């Protein structure tokens, strides 16, 4: 009977360990671009002002923070952010400190997709593919 309990407990521990997603590191610089849609301007090609540098400076477990740089009317805007990686180890969420939110997907160790959205009259959405920048 003890043997059955032991193997049952062992199977439970192994299953729990296998289902826990490994936490990927997002620390580093990421850069890329992508198309979008703006309530005032309509559809926007990625070459207009869709370049994004996403610099994750610190990560503590599933939580991370940093700064991003993007262009608005020809001017570089630097904005802080904080984010969290979901328990699946692939999805992440970002709150930008000026305005807007991002939902991201970790595609690989060196590639992420970031979907930015902002609600309201000045609403807009962008889909950006970012690649890790070698340092």
Low-confidence stretches: 5-19
Task: Summarize model confidence as the mean pLDDT.
Answer: 85
Outline: globular
For this structure, what is the CATH homologous superfamily?
Calycin beta-barrel core domain
Q: Any idea of the CATH class? A: Mainly Beta
Count of helical stretches:
1
Largest sheet features: 8 strands, antiparallel, barrel
| CATH architecture annotation | Beta Barrel
* Tally of structural domains: 1
**CATH-defined fold name:** Lipocalin
How many runs of DSSP E, i.e. beta strands? 10
Listing every helix as H and every strand as E from the N terminus to the C terminus, the arrangement reads HEEEEEEEEEE
Task: Provide the gyration radius in Å.
Answer: 19 Å
User: What is the helical fraction, as a range of percent?
Assistant: 10-25%
Structure description:
The protein has one helix at 2-19; strands spanning 28-33, 36-38, 42-44, 52-60, 63-72, 75-85, 91-96, 101-108, 111-118, 124-132. With 135 residues, it is mostly beta strands. It has a single domain (22-132), classed as Calycin beta-barrel core domain (Lipocalin, Beta Barrel). The chain is built from one helix and ten strands; from the N terminus they run H-E-E-E-E-E-E-E-E-E-E. Strands 1-4-5-6-7-8-9-10 form an eight-stranded antiparallel β-barrel. The radius of gyration is 19 Å and the shape is globular. This is Lipoprotein.
């Amino acid at each position: 009977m003890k043997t059955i309990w032991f193997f049952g407990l062992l199977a439970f521990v192994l299953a729990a360990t296998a289902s826990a997603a490994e936490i990927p590191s997002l620390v580093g610089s990421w850069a890329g671009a992508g198309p979008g849609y703006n309530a005032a301007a309509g559809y926007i090609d990625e070459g207009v002002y869709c370049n994004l540098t996403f610099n994750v400076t610190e990560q503590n477990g599933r939580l991370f923070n940093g700064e991003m740089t993007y262009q608005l009317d020809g001017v570089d805007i630097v904005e802080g952010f904080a984010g969290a990686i979901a328990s699946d180890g692939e999805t992440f969420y970002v709150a930008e400190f000026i305005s807007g939110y991002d939902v991201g997907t970790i595609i690989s160790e060196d590639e992420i997709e970031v979907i930015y959205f902002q609600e309201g009259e000045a609403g807009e959405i962008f889909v950006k593919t970012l690649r890790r920048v070698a340092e």
